Amino acid sequence: MQELADKIQSFKKEIQETIVQGQEQLEQFRIRFLGTKGIIKQMMGEMKSVPNEMKKDFGALLNEFKQFAELKYEEAKSANSEKSQVNSESTIDYSLPGYPSVTGSRHPIQLTMNKMISIFEKIGFTVAEGPEIEDDWHNFTALNLPEDHPARDMQDTFYISKNPDWLLRTHTSSIQVRVMQEGKLPIRQIFPGRVYRNETISSRSHCVFHQIEGLYIDEKVSFADLKQTLYYFVKELFGENVKVRFRPSYFPFTEPSAEMDVSCFICNSKGCNVCKQTGWVEILGCGMVHPQVLKNCGIDPEKYTGFAWGMGVERTTMMMHGIKDIRLLSENDMRFLSQFKSVI
C-alpha cells in the first residue's frame, strides 16, 4: 500500500512540475495520465493487489489523484485556448481594407467600336444589326455583284458546304440591303458587326474581323455630304491634327468610289509595317450608292441618292493604341488585354 501511495505522490509531483505549452504537449499529457493506457488506468489495475481492508483508503487516494490530473489538464487546455485566441486576434487588423475583387476590362475592339458608334450617333445615325450567316443575294447579288462578276474574286468567301448559296458574310453591307428592302426612307444608319474572309493571317490582316459600315439615303444627297460626314468622324476619332486624303477607287456597289487615308499615328508618318512605309493608312472605302443597287432594293434612283462607307475596326484600334500586330487583338493574352481599363 505504501509503495503505491509513494508512486501516486511521485506522479502528482511530476504533474505539478510539468509545463504544458501548445496542443501537442497537451495531447501528450492527456495520453500519459488520462488515456486508456495511461498512468491512472495502470494504477487502477493495481487495486487487485491491495488488501481488502485497505482498498477503501487506496481508492480514495487514487480518486483524488485522478481529479488532480484532470484539473491540471483542464487548466492547461483552457490556458492554451486563450493564448491561441489572443495570438489569432493579434495577427488580424480588422481596420485594414479587404482584398479587392479582380475586375475585367472591355476588349480594345469593343472600346473602339463603342467610340465610333457614339460619334455617328451624335449626327443622327442609328444602329442596325443582321445575321452573320447570309445568302448569296444579300451578300453579293443585290450589291451589284452577279454570279459571274469579277469583283467577287476580291473577297475570299467561307461558304457553307451543305448549301453553297449560304455563306459567312464578307461585309456588313448585307445589312444595308435588308434595311433598304424595308423601304422606310430616309435611311441614316450604321452597321457594326463581325465579318469573315478566307485570308492569310499576318500582322496586318485576319480571317475574322469587325466592320462598321454606314448608309445615308435621302433626296438630293451628294458626294460633298459624304466627305463632310467622314471629315467630322475622323476629326472626332483621331483629333483635329489628323491629316486626311481621298483617293479614287472602285467598288461595284458605289459610283463614284473612293478610299480614305489618314496619317499614320504609329510611326508619325515616318513609315512602318502598318502603313507599308508610306506614312498613310487606308481606314475606309466609300462612295455614292450605285443606282443599280437602289433598284435591286426597290428604291427609285431618280428620286433618291445616297452614300455608303465601310471601315475595319481592328485597323482603327491599332491606330488609336499604337498596336503594331493585329494578331494581338485575338490571342486572348491577359497581359495585353488588361491594359485597356476604359469603360467607354
Describe the structure.
It is a single chain. The protein is an alpha+beta fold and 344 residues long. It has two domains: 2-90; 108-337, BirA Bifunctional Protein, domain 2, CATH 3.30.930. It has helices spanning 2-17, 22-34, 39-45, 52-90, 108-122, 136-139, 173-182, 223-238, 291-296, 313-321, 334-337, and strands at 126-127, 133-135, 166-168, 187-196, 208-218, 244-251, 254-263, 280-289, 305-312. It has a seven-stranded mixed β-sheet, sandwiched between helices. Strands 2-3 form a two-stranded antiparallel ribbon. A hairpin with a 2-residue loop joins strand 6 (244-251) and strand 7. Helix 5 packs across helix 10. It is rod-shaped. The model has no long low-confidence stretch (mean pLDDT 85).
Structural class: alpha+beta
Class of the largest domain in CATH? Alpha Beta
Q: What is the makeup of the main sheet? A: 7 strands, mixed
Radius of gyration: 42 Å
Distance between the termini: 92 Å
Strand residue percentage: 15-25%
The total count of strands amounts to 9
Adjacency order of strands in the biggest sheet: 1-4-5-9-8-7-6
Low-confidence stretches: none
Helices and strands, in order, run as HHHHHEEHEHEEHEEEHEHH
